[in-house]
Amino acid sequence: MKFTGTYTALITPFNRGRVDEEAFKNLINEQVRAGVDGIVPAGTTGESPTLEFNEHIRVIELAVKFAKGKIKVLAGTGANSTSEAIQLTKAAEVVGADGSLLVAPYYNKPSQEGLFLHFKKIAKSTKLPIVLYSIPGRCNIAIEVETVQRLVKACNNIVGIKEAGGDADRVSQLREGLGVKFGILSGDDSLTLPFMAVGAEGVISVASNLIPKKIVRMVKLFSTGKSAEALKIHQDYYLMFKDLFIETNPIPVKFALSLLGKCAEEYRLPLCKMALGNRKQIVKTLKSCKLI
């Protein structure tokens, strides 16, 4: 299986400290109607570090239930503990996820050999297709191209990568080193088109929580050679792409969704509400995009 197109890195809505299942259902229904290719529940945009283990699995289970086979569910099951990641991945397989998104271990900063052994052990524990997730800005380590090549040779269910290192040259290196069968998805909305220009085949998007139809259209237009039309959408929403990271993701996108009445503005510590100036900036940006 290859994951291409538009995947939404879903937020996890909370209400009085608990997962708001009704709001989550409504968010997923909107994604289905918008025509996204898939959703990513319980990733870092879904505040996975503060989800309890059973909550984490419940969020994935709900995503599978609400997606109803209409769109793919690429479950966030990464952890900085290999054994925990294996447990999460196995559980995601049991509840019916279509694949697993595995972020690089954060904080403990393993070597490339450690990364290889980590991902290999997880991949060998499941039949799910696996998408690696390299985001050195949050993990302080990148999954090097050579390590990805070793993993693909060792594990036939490692099928792609979410690339969030901010470097289009790395996308070129990945495409050159891994061939056309390997899936590459942008991990940054503002870099989706530059990355697609050199070999990526879509995006795992934060902005599509807010504008799923626009992101789907932008990706499809670029994929079918209509780059000028895709660029127009990129330009229309570029400031929003950037402002959704004015503070740590998912704080800005969750605030924006709360303004649209789609979830409560509720986070789990250590995440908290944005500074007043940044809140005003998000309001200004949403108004300029005619979302409020």
Would you write up a description of this structure?
This protein is 47% helix and 14% strand. The chain is built from 12 helices and 10 strands. The protein has a single domain (5-224), classed as TIM Barrel (Alpha-Beta Barrel). Helix 3 runs parallel beside helix 4, helix 4 (112-124) runs parallel beside helix 6 and helix 11 (251-259) packs across helix 12. By secondary structure, the chain is of the alpha/beta class.
Structural class: alpha/beta
Query: SSE string, helix = H, strand = E?
Result: EEEHEHEHEHEHHEHEHEHHHH
Strand content: 5-15%
* Inertia-based shape: globular
| SS summary, helix count | 12
Number of strands: 10
Q: What is the name of the CATH architecture?
A: Alpha-Beta Barrel
Quote the distance from N terminus to C terminus.
38 Å
Brief summary of the model shown:
This protein is α/β, with parallel strands linked by helices. The chain contains twelve helices and ten strands. 49% of the residues are buried.
